[in-house]
């Protein structure tokens, strides 16, 4: 839903009038009506209940999508605001890895914290060793360090993804 962004204010034609001018008409039922007879160099935009309701509806839709959720485990922290997710791990290397140096984290991400597309990003671990962090759409997290790190050594990394 695209909201209007081209509203304009009334601009009085100051050479003709310094203030708004109204013509008063006497009605048959004893009331009076006013007609704006001001000279304008620019007529402003209409803005009323329909525009306010449209904006409030859009704001409500946006805010309902931005739910905050947080999960803390023994060695990890997950945070989600809308579609933006954050994963932080700090702890011992969880398992011995195979010959290709890859190890898999013990936990699988809950469904709400899984990426829409697979995530692959560089990480620097506490030991200074670099590597690649992969998170699959099924929530499996794997780390591929650039060099051998003995099991039980401490690693720390953070990643933000959608």
Task: Explain what the structure shows.
- A hairpin with a 5-residue loop joins strand 10 and strand 11.
- The protein is rod-shaped.
- The protein is mainly beta and 162 residues long.
- The chain folds into 2 domains: 11-65, no CATH class; 68-161, Sandwich (Immunoglobulin-like), CATH 2.60.40.1830.
- It has one helix spanning 49-65, and strands spanning 11-12, 22-26, 32-36, 40-42, 68-72, 76-81, 84-92, 103-104, 119-124, 130-135, 141-145, 154-161.
- The protein has a 4-stranded antiparallel β-sheet, with no helix packed on it. A 4-stranded antiparallel β-sheet has the order 8-11-10-9, with no helix packed on it.
- It has 1 helix and 12 strands.
- How many β-strands, per DSSP? 12
Main sheet attributes: strand count, strand direction, barrel closure: 4 strands, antiparallel
CATH fold type of the largest domain: Immunoglobulin-like
- The CATH homologous superfamily of the largest domain is named Phage tail base-plate Siphoviridae RBP, head domain
As a whole number of angstroms, the C-alpha radius of gyration is 31 Å
CATH architecture of the largest domain: Sandwich
What's the helical proportion of residues?
10-25%
- Please state roughly what percent of the residues sit in beta strands, choosing from under 5%, 5-15%, 15-25%, 25-35%, 35-45% or over 45%: 35-45%
Q: How would you write the strand order of the largest sheet? A: 5-6-7-12
Distance between the ends: 22 Å
- List low-confidence stretches: none
Number of helices: 1
Principal-axis shape: rod-shaped
CATH class of the largest domain, please? Mainly Beta
Number of domains: 2
Mean pLDDT: 84
């Amino acid at each position: 839903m695209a909201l209007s962004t081209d509203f304009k204010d009334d601009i009085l034609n100051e050479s003709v009038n310094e203030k708004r001018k109204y013509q008063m008409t006497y009605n048959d039922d004893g009331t009076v009506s006013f007609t704006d007879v001001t000279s304008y160099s620019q007529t402003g935009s209409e803005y009323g209940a329909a525009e306010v309701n449209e904006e409030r509806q859009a704001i409500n839709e946006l805010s309902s999508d931005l739910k905050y959720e947080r999960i803390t485990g023994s060695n990890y922290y997950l945070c989600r605001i809308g579609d933006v997710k954050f994963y932080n791990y700090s702890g011992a290397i969880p398992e011995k890895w195979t010959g290709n140096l890859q190890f898999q984290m013990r936990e699988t991400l809950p469904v709400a914290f899984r990426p829409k597309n697979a995530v692959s990003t560089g990480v620097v671990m506490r030991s200074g060793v670099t590597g690649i962090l992969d998170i699959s759409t099924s929530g499996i997290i794997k780390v591929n360090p650039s060099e051998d790190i003995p099991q039980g050594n401490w690693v720390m990394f953070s990643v933000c993804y959608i």
